[in-house]
Amino acid sequence: MMKMVPDASGTTINLVDREPLTISQSIDLAGTNVEEWDDLGVAIIIQDFASKEVHQSGYAVENGVFATDASLTELNVDGELIDGFDPAVLEYFVELPEGTTEVPIVTGVSTDPNAIVIVVPAIELPGTTTVDVFAEDLQTYVTYSIDFTVLTGIGDNYADKIQVYPNPSKGLIHINGANNAEISVYNTVGILVAEYNNFTEGTIDLSTQANGIYFVKVSTDSFVATKRITLNR
C-alpha cells in the first residue's frame, strides 16, 4: 500500500440509507517509487467507525463511464407481473382480498443488470412497498411504489375519505377526514419518526425530518388507512 488518503484515519462521514455520497480526494505521488503505473490502483474501504467492521471494499475505476438506466423491466407481486406495468409508471395500487394479513412479496428486475434493486416491504396492511432502483453510476435512481389496500367492508369507505396533502410537502402535512385518530409516521425502513394521539383534522409538522418518502398511518376504531407522502424542501 503506497498511501492512505487523507491519512491512516481516513475520512469520517455519516451515511444515510440509499442517499448517494460523493467524496473527492487527491494525492501527490511525486517522489514515490512506482515500478509499473498500470499496477497502481485505488482501493476504497468502508468501515464502521465504532465496531471497526468493514462493510464494503473495492477498487475505483479510472475514467470510468457508468450507465444511468434506473428502470425496471418487471415489477412482480407474489411472483406475478403487476397489472398494467409500465417502466415509466412509478406508482401502482393493488387491492387484496378481505382477510389478507401478510404483506405480498414484491420483486423487481432491472433493465440494466448492473443496476441495484432494493425492495422495502410495507410495514403492515394496508401499506406501501417501495422499490428503489439505482443505476450503475449509483447517482441516478427512481422509486417505484405499490400501495396495498385490503377489502374489509364498510371500513374501506371511511379510509377512502382520508386526505393527506400537499404531496410532495415541505414539512407541514394537512390531514382531513380523521376524528380522534392515532397518527403514526414511519420512514422507509420502518422507523417511527412521529406520533400524534387523539388527532382530529389538522396539521402535523415533519419539517425536522430529512427529505424522502414517509408513510402516514391513520388509525381509528373503525378503520386503518396508510398514505404515502414525500418530503422535498
Number of helices: 1
Note the gap between the termini. Answer: 43 Å
Provide the helix percentage: under 10%
Mean of all residue-level pLDDT scores: 85
Tally of strands: 16
- Pick out the low-confidence regions: none
**What structural class do you assign from the helix and strand content?**
mainly beta
- Gross geometry: elongated
What Rg do the Cα atoms give?
23 Å
**N to C succession of SSEs:** EEEEEEEEEHEEEEEEE
- Main-sheet strand order equals 5-9-8-7
What share of residues are in beta strands? 35-45%
Major beta sheet summary: 4 strands, mixed
Overall description:
Strand 1 and strand 2 form a beta hairpin. Among the domains are: 79 residues, no CATH class; 72 residues, Sandwich (Immunoglobulin-like). The strands form 5 sheets. The protein has a 4-stranded mixed sheet with strand order 5-9-8-7, with no helix packed on it. The model has no long low-confidence stretch (mean pLDDT 85). With 233 residues, the protein is mainly beta. It has 1 helix and 16 strands. Helices cover 2% and strands 41% of the residues. The chain is elongated, with a radius of gyration of 23 Å.
Which features characterize this protein?
233 residues; mainly beta; 1 helix; 16 strands; elongated
Brief summary of the model shown:
The chain has 233 residues and is an all-beta fold. Helices cover 2% and strands 41% of the residues. It has a four-stranded mixed sheet, with no helix packed on it. A four-stranded antiparallel sheet has the order 13-12-15-16, with no helix packed on it.
